[in-house]
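haha ok so turns out i had the wrong file open the whole time. this is the CORRECT one, sorry everyone. sequence first:
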Amino acid sequence: MPPRYDDQWIGGRWQPSDAEGRLVVTDPSTELPLATVPAGTPRDADLAVRAAAAAFPAWAATPVRERAALLGRVVAGLERRAPEFAATITAEVGAPTRVALRTQVGLAIGMAAHCVETAAGHVFEERVGHSLVVREAAGVAACVTPWNVPLLLTVQKLLPALAAGCTVVHKPSELTPLHARLLADVFAEADLPPGVVNTVVGTGDILGTALVTHPLVDVVSLTGSTRAGRQVSALGADGIKRIHLELGGKNASLVLPDADLATAVGATVDQVLFNTGQTCLQWSRLLVPRDRQDEAVELAGRIMDGYVTGDPRDPATDLGPLVSAAAHARVTEYVRRGASEGGARLVRGGPGRPEGLSTGYYVRPTVFADVDPLTTIAQEEIFGPVLSVIPYDDEEQAVRIVNGTRYGLHGAVWSGDDARAERVARRFRTGLVDVNGGSFNPAAPFGGFKQSGIGRECGVAGLEAFLETKSLQLPQGSADEVVGPRLRAAGVPDAPAEGAAGRAGDSGEREGAGA
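then structure:
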């Protein structure tokens, strides 16, 4: 029998949930249950939020360097338990263990360490004229994280929120909650005060709704689908919540005519296949000059042939399964539509499981050529190992195609001339562009344009997402020296002659003015 968990991490301890329903966590490589967890309830959400609200005043008042030191222990805990996290991510996500350890866990540790360093060196107060501008914790943050790269995307929210002085209620995806239980243990071992971090598991429609609409939640930070972003925005509007959204993408890798085609195509294929295509940063559209499309398609197919799909626990495996039966059905349907819509040529892969893999949510890495940029597979986020090769005739057309979706998260541009690549990258309507293979920078802001999100994560921007700004207007000479000129500049007339205000007050004409 798989383990049965009946509790939620609330107020510094595992507390029993009142949930009657159960959620089954499935190993996507075997389709067998890994564990069951409670289908969290509004009561679970309320207890967690109230625990966070009770812990907030003391945590927000803790000096930044003390908070950073405590979070440094969290980083050490992540490092110490890295193999456990990798094994857990393999089990619940299906990521190959060696990839999970190196990338999913390794990047999470690096992100966490950078976040602590950023907070320790951040300027939280500054003088602006006679004002003291103070940046202070925004309050209780509800952080809703996805299943695809779960530890990294959790750390990317929780560590900045905690470093800023916020307290947190974390809702991981119900598909992959086991890493979050392990992370709660890491926070406990780091001796964070009770209630500073709380973790509750449940579905978005019940538990997520209860968190987003809770009156004591000040900030909501979601990484998820564009559909989920719309729902969270609508739910949070009534309470005027501060909402941060990191959503989907339909990202393009643009190869200019003077680029090294082999380098560009190789990097694009590697990126589109990472995590079996289940990343919002995936370059799922490859734009190439029309006269080089056949060469690009041949290169892409040859590179894909070098990837091994199979058991994610096998060190030889490069690609594991998709996360769930629903994901498998969704990607399969997109592949079928791509083969029948708009004249695209299926040149590699296609619907169905890879040969020899009858169990598990495996799909075949797929390449389409001659893809019309307005067809479904070129417009919608597939979230699987599917590459659409789109030919173009000139740079202007290529840029229009790049920007021709409702998304604007990520992109890449390749050229033999760095200056030209940068010039073209500036025309992308996306929050992040890799220029000639530039690597990810955790100190730089990350987020999307258009329907790819609102707000930024990572670096200083990620920290400030959880801060409010307060201006303290400090004394400077007499009130007339400071206030009088400012009011006059705004068109407010000078005060009446001496005695006039007193007479107005005596006659009762100003009754109720204070309201």
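Residues 272 and 282 are 5 Å apart (CA to CA).
again sry for the mixup
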